[in-house]
Amino acid sequence: MTLFVDMDEVLADTYQAHIDVYNSEFGASLTREECYGKEVWQCVPEEHQQSVRQHAHTRGFFKELPVIENSSEVLEQLNEKYKVYIASAAMQFPNSLEEKSDWLDNHFSFIPWQRRILCGYKHILKGDLLIDDRSYNLERFNGKTILFTSPHNVNTKGFDRANTWLEIADKLL
Amino acid sequence: MTLFVDMDEVLADTYQAHIDVYNSEFGASLTREECYGKEVWQCVPEEHQQSVRQHAHTRGFFKELPVIENSSEVLEQLNEKYKVYIASAAMQFPNSLEEKSDWLDNHFSFIPWQRRILCGYKHILKGDLLIDDRSYNLERFNGKTILFTSPHNVNTKGFDRANTWLEIADKLL
């Protein structure tokens, strides 16, 4: 079985990083819970939205992202059992490309370069399962899908869902 | 029809760049013809091989690659007719990732980020046709293939082959 795993908000806590950078920059105290059902930029005053939307274009942003709890341990076990690829729609942010490669070297070095994919559309991936936080990626994928919970997708219906990597372990190991 | 097109030695003349950098560094006069059937590093004295093998790890190497003749004009026409993706096995060279994105912006800006793929293995791509200079990519691809001629593959048998982009136009337009 070939398994594709997204990076941002599945392995890397990009969502929390947006909140942390915003709170630090504006002395705010935005929480994840306040953001449920929205993107972070939609949860800040209008005059700060442009700043939040610039995070992903900022050098360094993707370099130090926190690792989502249990993702490394569970993915390493999945990697023993399945053909695991990491697939990130990163081409939108050229500044992120090398940082993402470095981040994988630091935290997911057991996934070799041959199984790393930086792309745009994900429906061109041929495999059996896609784990992703974006419903538009899952909808067009030609295989099974798991929606990984992120604050922005808590209200999304119609997908098999995992809230944590331990739930993914339960489903797949 | 979904079409995947490789970058190095199909759109970008990486092979010639290896020769040019080598000739410039060592005051040599290696030609493409002397390299037929081999990689560039295999065509230089043993004491220079390590230097040639470092080119792809050197910052700047992928930034200024020459565009292969007629590739831009023909690909732009193919892009009107088919779903064209560019797929480069670039993950081996993290230093190349942003340079490749910039190079595409400069020379193939009509291919948007959604249709750009930096990957390792290419057999995970789901589509109808792969144009590539590496037989190992074509062998495992689950669709039609065209081997694009590069000095290193002139002796490779068993593939539908195109020597130039005008030949690709003849086949596909």
From TrEMBL, chains A, B:
Coiled coil spans: none
The Gene Ontology biological process terms listed for this entry are: pyrimidine deoxyribonucleotide catabolic process
- Matching Gene3D superfamilies, A to Z? Deoxyribonucleotidase, domain 2, HAD superfamily/HAD-like
The residue range of the signal peptide is: none
Q: Could you tell me one molecular function GO term of this UniProt entry?
A: 5'-nucleotidase activity
**InterPro entries per the record?**
5'(3')-deoxyribonucleotidase (IPR010708), HAD-like_sf (IPR036412), HAD_sf (IPR023214)
Q: What's a Pfam family in this record?
A: NT5C
Q: Where is the active site?
A: 6, 8
Top-rank taxon of the source lineage equals Bacteria
Give the similarity note. Answer: Belongs to the 5'(3')-deoxyribonucleotidase family.
Protein name per the record: 5'(3')-deoxyribonucleotidase
Q: Please tell me the species this chain comes from.
A: Flagellimonas meridianipacifica
